[in-house]
């Protein structure tokens, strides 16, 4: 009990309960005074009005907002939300609001974004390879292949160099969907050397009268949003599947969102695993923003999801639908951003 | 760019400690017909309440016409402008169509009502939909289809840009459904969004622009238009194939025969049900099955024709107690209308069993052997004191096993698969198969094809009250949705 008294909210509730009791007593006293004295009825009425006003204001003005704030704090404490703490409608006091803001500054959202972006650089970082050294070496291989007349090696090397150039350089910026899809097509080209006809990619646009393909391609999104998702679909879905695997990227635009759905008809996932993954994806999670564990299944998608939520808010992000033997759909929801 | 009418963002809804909606994430666009295939009905009513009334949620947010109307941190119980068309109906039976559409509308403040003007407006609205229903008719006299159309008009007049259609095939016949779906398509082109909820994927695929598979409060998969094929759904469904179960071949001898019986249509109806056979009668326009059920359950007689039950012949307008003659009718919602809530499981199961024993004297030994036999089939729920706490599946089991125990010559199943989700439908099919295997001839009266085909040996299609076609089991593929 003594432990509970430490909290100001408990003290406020107790104080309110005390005042309410006081008003009740006042009402009883007014009732006592008015017995047999109808001219004193105004006293009873005034006490009743005061009690009703107190109850109404106490409930809607203090109790309900307090509950709302507690609910957000509870979700934050359980790790389900992050940004909502900054959007609390009824903070306990100006100082507590400032504390929250300071806390977020200390946590360094910018730093978090940077950590998350490191998934894009993981190859270079993990192997401590200088990107320029990598490009130069690849260019060397390409020249050698051309001079020996092995065009296929030259083409593959060129595709790989293009892929690394896009992946490693300038990860800070938002890019056009056109660039992101060009990178995916390049990545698909590289993967085809390994998978051949087993892997089929199809990009579809949900165009309308007001919006054609060219306009859709101008929308912007965080760089390397799609590649980790496509990579996951190939390695966890299609690679172990017997027969052809189809990868479909469907892009739709609504009045407020850019929705990209990456579907594969690979092995799919068990319902429990999908549920756990979506549970993690529904909120911004800092636990997995660790470049060291990027390669473990599903982490890449979580990092993309974190990046989207950090940049645009918790109402955007990724949701996964999957079923064993049916395949997996990854739906990426982004705000509409144009130059 | 199409406007998002509704968006559910990671919505989790819990009531009394149970999770009904789990991380639900989907959106519906303006003018879109979004299908919702209900694989397991848990969470359906909560979803409708959430969309309509912004009830408190445990996590996530709801956006309606671009505005956030509900959030886990605060729910204000405001109503969204959404209309639900469901079996229960929201019209006032004793009022006319015009009164329901205009006078009962929110914000209608006229003191003097010119009914001629209102009727004329209703006629214009009906004409827009290609219909001609008399606006002066009382709602109580309307057919299910006419009610649905009236409700749709009411929704449009109330300015609802989003309408939920809750399992309308449960109460509309095949033809009415097609007609209503055409109206929905037209309305969707005008910008109204629909959430089309249905138990059968064929039905939903036929109308929806996109379709979500709803299972125990989660969206399992969202199908795009090009994915709406039978094979795409296979990994998500349970098998309805009954070929593995023991099947008793029907005999040629007719156990029930209707010869030139006038029911409701202009033409007389005639068919015969063979011993041990399961015959499905598909009433495409809902004209015949109701009067037929009334006749077979002993509520009314027949004007013309004869009914043969084995060697016995029945005719005349005097109602006949066919139950005495060995015909038992299982109504369309047996869990609600066929059982007695204040009686125990065993009392319900053995109800009317006294007619089968000498002098109506059911001995304890009879009850013991019934309990022993059915315990194996239904499990420990057989000892339930009251049936209130039983699940829907257990109540369906009880209703069908009561008939199984009574062992009539003919069991008439009225719309047996109309109500349940995928798992319940599969269970009902097993129960019907069990009736068949015990030698009972089964007559299925339905207005929807659905999965009834899996258990039936023969199908008769009734149109305008007369037999339009007859198919043997191997010809069922000719009849599609």
From TrEMBL, chain A:
Top-level taxon of the source organism: Bacteria
Key words of the record: Kinase, Membrane, Transferase, Transmembrane, Transmembrane helix
Transmembrane segments: 12-34, 40-62
Membrane among keywords: yes
Gene3D superfamilies: Histidine kinase-like ATPase, C-terminal domain (3.30.565.10)
Listed GO CC annotations: membrane
Pfam families: HATPase_c, His_kinase
Span of domain Signal transduction histidine kinase internal region: 120-199
Domain Histidine kinase/HSP90-like ATPase: 226-336
GO molecular function ontology, one term from the record: phosphorelay sensor kinase activity
Signal sequence segment: none
Keyword check for Ribonucleoprotein: no
Annotated PANTHER family: SENSOR HISTIDINE KINASE YPDA
Protein name: Histidine kinase
TrEMBL record, chain B:
Gene3D superfamilies: P-loop containing nucleotide triphosphate hydrolases
Domain of life: Bacteria
PANTHER family found in the cross-reference section: CARBOHYDRATE TRANSPORT ATP-BINDING PROTEIN MG119-RELATED, SUGAR ABC TRANSPORTER ATP-BINDING PROTEIN
Species of origin: Lacrimispora celerecrescens
Residues of the signal peptide: none
Keyword vocabulary terms for this entry: ATP-binding, Nucleotide-binding
Domain ABC transporter, residue spans: 6-241, 250-479
TM region(s), chain numbering: none
Name this protein carries in UniProt: ABC transporter domain-containing protein
An example molecular function term from Gene Ontology annotations: ATP hydrolysis activity
UniProt xrefs under Pfam families: ABC_tran
């Amino acid at each position: 009990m003594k432990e509970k008294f430490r909290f100001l909210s408990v003290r406020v509730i107790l104080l309110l309960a005390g005042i309410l009791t006081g008003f009740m007593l006042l009402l009883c006293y007014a009732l006592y005074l008015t017995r047999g004295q109808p001219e004193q009825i105004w006293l009873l009425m005034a006490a009743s009005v005061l009690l009703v006003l107190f109850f109404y204001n106490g409930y809607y003005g203090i109790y309900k907002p307090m509950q709302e704030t507690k609910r957000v704090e509870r979700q934050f404490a359980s790790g389900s939300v992050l940004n909502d703490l900054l959007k609390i409608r009824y903070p306990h006091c100006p100082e507590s609001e400032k504390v929250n803001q300071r806390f977020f500054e200390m946590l360094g959202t910018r730093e978090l974004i940077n950590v998350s972006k490191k998934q894009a650089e993981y190859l270079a970082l993990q192997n401590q390879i200088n990107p320029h050294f990598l490009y130069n070496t690849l260019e060397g291989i390409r020249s050698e292949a051309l001079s020996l007349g092995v065009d296929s090696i030259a083409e593959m090397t060129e595709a790989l160099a293009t892929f690394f150039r896009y992946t490693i350089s300038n990860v800070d910026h938002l890019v056009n969907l056109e660039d992101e899809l060009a990178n995916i097509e390049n990545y698909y080209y590289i993967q085809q050397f390994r998978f051949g006809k087993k892997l089929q990619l199809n990009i579809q646009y949900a165009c309308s009268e007001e919006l054609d393909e060219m306009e859709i391609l101008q929308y912007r999104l965080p760089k390397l949003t799609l590649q980790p998702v496509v990579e996951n679909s190939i390695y966890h879905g299609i690679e172990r599947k017997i027969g052809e695997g189809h990868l479909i990227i469907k892009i739709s635009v609504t009045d407020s969102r850019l929705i990209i759905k990456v579907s594969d008809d690979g092995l799919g996932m068990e319902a429990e695993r999908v549920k756990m993954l979506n549970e993690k994806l529904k909120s911004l999670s800092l636990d997995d923003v660790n470049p060291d564990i990027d390669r473990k299944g599903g982490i890449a998608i979580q990092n993309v999801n974190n990046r989207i939520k950090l940049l645009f808010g918790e109402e955007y992000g990724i949701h996964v639908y999957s079923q064993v033997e049916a395949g997996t759909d990854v739906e990426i929801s982004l705000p509409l951003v144009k130059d | 760019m199409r406007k998002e009418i509704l968006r559910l963002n990671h919505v989790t809804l819990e009531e009394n400690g149970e999770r009904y909606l789990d991380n639900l994430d989907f959106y519906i666009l303006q003018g879109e017909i979004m299908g919702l295939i209900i694989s397991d009905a848990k969470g359906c009513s909560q979803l409708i309440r959430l969309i309509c009334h912004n009830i408190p949620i445990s996590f996530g947010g709801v956006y309606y016409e671009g505005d956030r109307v509900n959030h886990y941190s605060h729910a204000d119980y405001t109503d969204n402008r959404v209309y639900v068309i469901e079996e229960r109906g929201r019209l006032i039976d004793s009022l006319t169509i015009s009164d329901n559409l205009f006078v009962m509308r929110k914000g209608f403040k006229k003191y003097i009502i010119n009914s001629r003007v209102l009727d004329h407006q209703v006629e214009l609205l009906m004409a827009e939909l290609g219909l001609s229903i008399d606006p002066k008719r009382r709602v109580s006299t309307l057919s299910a289809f006419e009610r649905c159309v009236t409700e749709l008009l009411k929704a449009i007049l109330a300015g609802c840009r989003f309408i939920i259609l809750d399992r309308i095939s449960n109460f509309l016949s095949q033809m009415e459904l097609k007609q209503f779906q055409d109206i929905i398509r037209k309305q969707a082109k005008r910008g109204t969004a629909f959430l089309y909820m249905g138990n059968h994927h064929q039905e939903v695929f036929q109308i929806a622009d996109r379709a979500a598979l709803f299972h125990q409060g989660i969206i399992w998969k969202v199908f795009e238009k090009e994915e709406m094929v039978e094979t795409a759904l296979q990994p998500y469904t349970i098998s309805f194939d009954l070929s593995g179960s023991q099947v008793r071949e029907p005999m040629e001898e007719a156990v029930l025969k209707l010869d030139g019986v006038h029911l409701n249509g202009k033409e007389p109806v005639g068919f015969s049900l063979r011993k041990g056979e399961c015959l499905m009668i598909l009433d495409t326009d809902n004209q015949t099955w109701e009067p037929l059920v009334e006749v077979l359950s002993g509520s009314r007689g027949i004007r013309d024709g004869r009914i043969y039950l084995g060697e016995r012949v029945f005719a005349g307008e005097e109602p006949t107690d066919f139950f005495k003659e060995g015909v038992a009718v299982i109504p369309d919602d047996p869990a609600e209308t066929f059982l007695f809530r204040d009686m125990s499981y065993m009392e319900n199961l053995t109800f009317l069993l006294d007619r089968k024993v000498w002098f109506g004297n059911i001995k304890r030994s009879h009850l013991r052997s019934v309990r022993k036999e059915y315990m194996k089939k239904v499990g420990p729920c057989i000892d339930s004191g009251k049936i209130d706490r039983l699940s829907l599946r257990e109540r369906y089991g009880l209703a069908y096993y009561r008939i199984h125990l009574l062992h009539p010559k003919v069991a008439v199943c009225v719309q047996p698969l109309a109500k349940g989700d995928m798992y319940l439908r599969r269970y009902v099919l097993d129960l019907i198969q069990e009736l068949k295997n015990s030698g009972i001839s089964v007559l299925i009266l339905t207005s929807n094809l659905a999965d009834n085909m899996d258990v039936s040996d023969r199908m008769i299609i009734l149109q305008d009250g007369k037999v339009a076609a007859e198919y043997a089991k191997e010809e069922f593929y000719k009849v599609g949705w």
